[in-house]
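worker-03 picked up job from queue 'complexes'. Input manifest follows; two sequence lines, order preserved.
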Amino acid sequence: MQTVIETKALCKQYGPHTAVDHVELHVPQGCVYGFIGPNGAGKSTTMKMLLGLIHPTAGRVRLLGQELTEKSRLPLLRQTGSLIESPAGYLHLTAQENLEIVADLKGVPHKDIGRVLDIVHLTQDRNRRVGQYSLGMKQRLGIAMALLGSPKLLILDEPTNGLDPAGIQEMRALIRNMPAATGATVLISSHLLGEMEQMVEQVGIIDHGHILFEGPLTELQRHSRGNVTLRLLDPAKAAPILRANGLTAHSDSCVVTLPPLQDALLADLVQKLAACGAGVVELTPHTKTLEEIFLSLTSEEAD
Amino acid sequence: MGKALHAELQKARRRHDLLICLAVPVVVYLWAGAAVPTGADELANAYSALLFALPVLNAILLPIVMALIASRLWDMEVKGSTTKLLYTLQSRRSLFAGKALLGTGEVLLMVTLEMAVSILLGRVQGYTEAFPAGPFVYTGICTLAVDVMLFFSELLLMLIFDNPLPALCVGIVGALIGLFSAFMPPLVSYFVPWGYFVPLSCYEVSYWDQATHTVTYGLRPYNWGLLAFTVVLAAVLFAAAWRMMRDKEV
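worker-03 finished. Artifact:
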């Protein structure tokens, strides 16, 4: 598969502080790629370097198969849409007028404005001033600006920040469908793994400027699987079954905590517990927090 | 360049910059209109009186107006968080060129209208003094040079602080100091760029008849040295503003 974004030993140093340290990203064409890391991990700095907004201290960036240089930057970015940190928009102008400015600067005909407004569901509000928009609407307008001219690549930095649950849901659906609807490859950053799981196929995890993991989401999910808690009516009856399955359970009154299990094993266990009369009332699979995954990844790396 | 200016003009929609550009000529018209010259002596000296008073009025108004024009040009980018988006669509050079062109264009429009109002006043109020074309053009050029210099100084402040307040405060304080410097020895006024309108003026009071309260204005030599310094200062501030935009982290 062709790689749309590729970085080689990308570094950014601010005085003594290393914000990005030898980052190697490989974003395949036609996917939604989640760039995950806690606040201050180096996500935005990396994305700004991908867009040439800040100069790397060292390393190289290739976008759409071409080296990003001062000369190639603007032609490459005309094929790229971006939304970095906060949505942009002139508050005294309407969405239509804002999009006209962006379209003219991108060299895109104005007839494309209707298409992108449709995609982000802002057609009804196109003639309202952006100053009267909610944050969610501004985010959608930001996406519309990024989509103008049908770019081959979209770089979105935490586009769900500050949105209400309905807005987040809507934004997720919009981004998830982007490759199919527009043919664009999407690089999206977030500090929430749970949010990313619903949108992306490939992930890169960054912490303290280092890439800890890069690969398919399914592989990451192996690392993110956490403990399982069972609430039982009679834990005493469950003990021999758990021992027989080689499981060490931590029991706290009626709640039993099990280590991470494969789905098939878990289903078999629940069936056996139910059959012996332990009374399975509730089963809660836990997902590791990003911090816990980092710890698991870094400990694996150390091993 | 054309694309960048076109984008700036699109952004100027509903920002009512034209009203600010019109405000200065309107104030000049109202102020001069309120002091209609009466009598043959005053009418025979009316253009000189107007061109003597105009720099003082400019020293009061224009530092604030320049702060308004410059700060509004950049403030919309700050409030709209648009710089990161713009730098992916156009070069920093093109963005700066667009803003510098529009700002200078607005200043030029304002000065042209102000000078046009002076001619209009002469016609409406029936000045009998022969139209002083040379001093008139010189005053226009001096006003333009000082305005452009102040515009880039305010744009620089706006770029440094990303906030219109420092630029506006400097504009207001500059207007007060500039006016104050007009009444100080000429050497002092050279250290106050906001008030350069006054030392650049080519008119002076040549005779004041205390008994009749009649003032006679006379020409004084053009201050080419200060005008050249103003142009150099404008160029330095232009370069500093450009460097600020070029090197600004986003």
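worker-03 released lock.
Chain B has a mean pLDDT of 92.
Residues 2-247 of chain B form one domain.
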